[in-house]
UniProtKB/TrEMBL annotation:
<feature type="binding site">
    <location>
        <position position="91"/>
    </location>
    <ligand>
        <name>[4Fe-4S] cluster</name>
    </ligand>
</feature>
<comment type="similarity">
    <text>Belongs to the quinolinate synthase family. Type 1 subfamily.</text>
</comment>
<dbReference type="GO" id="GO:0005829">
    <property type="term" value="C:cytosol"/>
</dbReference>
<keyword id="KW-0411">Iron-sulfur</keyword>
<protein>
    <recommendedName>
        <fullName>Quinolinate synthase</fullName>
        <ecNumber>2.5.1.72</ecNumber>
    </recommendedName>
</protein>
<keyword id="KW-0963">Cytoplasm</keyword>
<comment type="pathway">
    <text>Cofactor biosynthesis; NAD(+) biosynthesis; quinolinate from iminoaspartate: step 1/1.</text>
</comment>
<feature type="binding site">
    <location>
        <position position="178"/>
    </location>
    <ligand>
        <name>[4Fe-4S] cluster</name>
    </ligand>
</feature>
<keyword id="KW-0479">Metal-binding</keyword>
<dbReference type="GO" id="GO:0034628">
    <property type="term" value="P:'de novo' NAD+ biosynthetic process from L-aspartate"/>
</dbReference>
<feature type="binding site">
    <location>
        <begin position="204"/>
        <end position="206"/>
    </location>
    <ligand>
        <name>iminosuccinate</name>
    </ligand>
</feature>
<dbReference type="GO" id="GO:0051539">
    <property type="term" value="F:4 iron, 4 sulfur cluster binding"/>
</dbReference>
<feature type="binding site">
    <location>
        <position position="221"/>
    </location>
    <ligand>
        <name>iminosuccinate</name>
    </ligand>
</feature>
<dbReference type="GO" id="GO:0008987">
    <property type="term" value="F:quinolinate synthetase A activity"/>
</dbReference>
<feature type="binding site">
    <location>
        <begin position="117"/>
        <end position="119"/>
    </location>
    <ligand>
        <name>iminosuccinate</name>
    </ligand>
</feature>
<keyword id="KW-0662">Pyridine nucleotide biosynthesis</keyword>
<feature type="binding site">
    <location>
        <position position="275"/>
    </location>
    <ligand>
        <name>[4Fe-4S] cluster</name>
    </ligand>
</feature>
């Protein structure tokens, strides 16, 4: 704990000295989330992270999350320096959607509007008409469907089929998945619900359909925290990365949060519902990048220019 206190106070001082701001996702270490909040940065879902980074006047942003979040920040603010605690922090959705294969998929379906999830590389975004995050995907696809558009969706198959079901849109789906959310199990969740009959079920839409079907609320990380805070219930079963529990507990003190089951029985599994790449962000590597200015995110200028169009479309729609 003493080392932790020292690391945190050094980080606070360096953020101030370098006029840098910390932008963190809800899945990263609780210490990083707290630091972001108390130093004037933000802790939020991926849509808010993008907006906050774009609008903040700081010349340097430290993005504590995964690579696509740093890339999005850079694309929206090419003049800013974007640093990340670990440049190898990626995402199984991004890894499972190779830009060349994706381009061939798009080429084969030129009649479709291309909508990609934020959890993709800049090169994939460069090929898209729209980027969406989990908080706004449903609204954007509903809007496109109302205009009679047929959609090509990538990469998350669960989020894609959830949106398809909700909107009735014609969607051709890439078959990617998130290695964390894909592990939540519908049958075991059903058993757990019987054990906690008063609990409400909060589900991130990257989870399988059998889990989403049992949700009281389906939403982005921010939307799930909001639900935990405002719903009239004392117990919640949560199907998303357990990093979110820190903020949920702060937002709704006194309420009880239980991680949804991820394996073959109804026992809660507190250690497995956690993204290995989000977990690469820590106090030590955060301090290191602040001290050295290392781990800068760069995005090829031509790719960034193209990718910006689909991100701006989403942000304009959200405004
Ligand atoms: P949110 O946009 O809901 O924060 O989701 C990002 C993510 O990576 C979820 O796994
Ligand atoms: Fe990607 Fe899943 Fe990790 Fe989110 S939790 S960053 S979707 S691997």
């Amino acid at each position: 704990p003493e080392e932790k206190i020292a690391l945190k106070s050094r980080i606070r001082a360096l953020l101030k000295e370098k006029q840098a701001v910390l932008v963190a996702h809800y899945y990263v270490d609780a210490d990083l989330q707290d630091l972001a909040e108390e130093t004037g940065g933000c802790v939020s879902d991926s849509l808010e992270m993008a907006r906050f980074g774009r609008d903040h006047e700081a010349k340097t942003l430290i993005v504590a999350g995964v690579r696509f979040m740093g890339e999005t920040a850079k694309i929206l603010s090419p003049e800013k320096t974007i640093l990340m605690p670990d440049l190898d922090a990626t995402c199984s959705l991004d890894l499972g959607c190779d830009a060349n294969e994706f381009a061939a998929f798009c080429d084969a379906h030129p009649d479709r509007t291309v909508v990609v999830y934020a959890n993709t590389s800049a090169a994939v975004k460069a090929r898209a008409d729209w980027m969406v995050t989990s908080s706004i995907g449903l609204d954007i696809v509903r809007h496109l469907h109302a205009q009679g558009k047929k959609i090509l969706w990538a990469p998350d198959k669960h989020l894609g089929s959830y949106i398809q079901k909700e909107t009735g849109a014609d969607m051709l789906l890439w078959q990617g998945s998130c290695l964390v959310h894909d592990e939540f199990k519908g049958v075991e969740l059903d058993v757990m619900k019987a054990e906690y009959p008063n609990a409400k079920v909060l589900v991130h839409p990257e989870s399988p359909a059998s889990v989403v079907a049992q949700a009281d609320v389906v939403g982005s990380t921010s939307q799930l925290i909001h639900a935990a805070q405002t719903m009239d219930a004392q117990e919640f079963i949560v199907a998303t990365d357990n990093g979110i529990l820190h903020k949920m507990q702060m937002a709704a003190p006194g309420k009880r949060f239980i991680v949804a089951p991820t394996a073959g029985n109804s026992a809660t599994c507190k250690s497995c519902a956690h993204c290995p790449w989000m977990a690469m962000n820590g106090l030590r590597n955060l301090l290191h990048v602040l001290e050295t200015g290392s781990n800068e995110i760069t995005v090829d200028t031509a790719i960034a220019y193209k990718a910006k169009t689909c991100i701006d479309r989403m942000l304009d729609f959200a405004a």
